[in-house]
Amino acid sequence: MKRIIYIPFDHLHRNFGALKEADPKQDVMAMVESARMTTGRNWHKERLFFLISSARHFAESLKDEGFTVEYVKAATTIDGLETIKAKHKLSEVICAEPSSFRQFEALQKCGVTFIANDFFLTPRPLFKEWADSQKSFLMENFYRLQRSRLNNLMEKGKPTGGAWNFDKENRLPPPKKYEGPAYLEHKRDQIDIEVAKELGHTPTTTWATTRKGALDQLKNFIDNHFAEFGPLEDAMTTDNWALHHSLLSPYLNNGLIHAEEVIAEAVKAFNSGKVPIESAEGFIRQIIGWREYVNGMYWFLGPDYRENNQLKATRKLLPLFTDSNKTKMNCIKETVADIEERAWVHHIPRLMLLSNLALVTGTNPQEFLDWMREVFIDATEWVMVPNVIGMGVHADGGAMMTKPYAAGGAYISRMSNYCKPCVYNPKLRTGEDACPFTTLYWDFLDRHKETFAKNHRMSQQFFGLNRLSDLPELKQRAKEVLEGLEQGTI
Ligand SMILES: Cc1cc2nc3c(=O)[nH]c(=O)nc-3n(C[C@H](O)[C@H](O)[C@H](O)COP(=O)(O)OP(=O)(O)OC[C@H]3O[C@@H](n4cnc5c(N)ncnc54)[C@H](O)[C@@H]3O)c2cc1C
Question: How far is the CA of 207 from the centre of ligand 1 (A)?
């Protein structure tokens, strides 16, 4: 019987989701470019360009295979599906489980039949089983289970290299003047040009919009970056915007590439002896550990989780997030300028600069989350919500992470080259030259000392706070810094 197979813009893989069972002679492929998705919010144009052009290329590849493809523009996904149903006089719509609560509910209401979402390595019920059995949801425990379950980097039941984790080797600061191999550039074709024109955007050459481009990106990472991925994983430098990160998240998230394919290539490269264990383990942990854990937690924690604000943070989004010219803090200026250019920075600027700043300034978590959702190339609801609410700004009262990722300027100074040319001094916590991160870090601890008093993982931090002799001056400087940040003058 003829069916409609609905392909959301993050299910773009021929061998996974509802498409794996599709029959070109029978089924009608439905893709909807909804106004809600394109104009509903202040989306970064690079992100819209990537998502729309990838979907249009994918639709073409299905047509080439002989499928009937309906690619429609509509106010909402549901409106688009109704149009396609009416045109083909069909009522049955099949889709792999969507990747957000909102879309799940909307599609369910209009009678879509779901099949299990296999865009991840961990079925949702399996993750729930794990989470239900835990007292605290430590990623490390989940990850070890994944290593054994998926048999990745395991030898006779033991972790390859004699340890589960090589984090200690993977915390090097950036070397001086580090350029590294050039990053891959992706040529633009007619479809790209049309999408860019519609959006009034000049895209970078950073992001591929086809399956072939995504596979080229994977090969480029494996051949030129994988071996050095681990040690420089946390480093930040203005000499090289991506260091040895894979830049694969957009394709993993929109389906152009599957985690299984990435892991297969990574394991092959490791087995060939070209990649040291600290890089292999570090990278595989991101894919089979962090990515799967975050997705599992999104579904486990439920739709209300995103509204958490347990630290009662009420400050409005600071102007520096939407305009890199609204700050003199070099690390933030550089990071936001990078986002403005290509909608991406790696995990440490996301966590230790942007989220850290939102955390220590007491910025409203939902306003910050909405901004992060709008500007990142790889942002989707399932991945942003736990990363921001749980890991980034600790708005969930510690449901995910045992302590907040708050840090002063010393961390940034150690892990980057941002501080040397900066007008602020990471070593100072008071006075006009004091680094805002350093001042606000101590101010944050002081403001929340009662909340975290019983958190033994923070006892050293509070020991430090109690030894500060200049707390009154620091509190005064913190007030000035917060005002300056609100006015865009700091
Ligand atoms: C506050 C915050 C927000 C984030 N928002 C997103 C987001 O919207 N979308 C997104 O894909 N990742 C997000 N991440 C995770 C991580 O920053 C990006 O996956 C990574 O920077 C993407 O670049 P890459 O592909 O070069 O990653 P690499 O450093 O090469 O890592 C390989 C892969 O591991 C996965 N991964 C690593 N860490 C995480 C994580 N914490 N959560 C989920 N996947 C992870 C990604 O798929 C990534 O492609 C966020 C992290 C933080 C701290």
Answer: 15
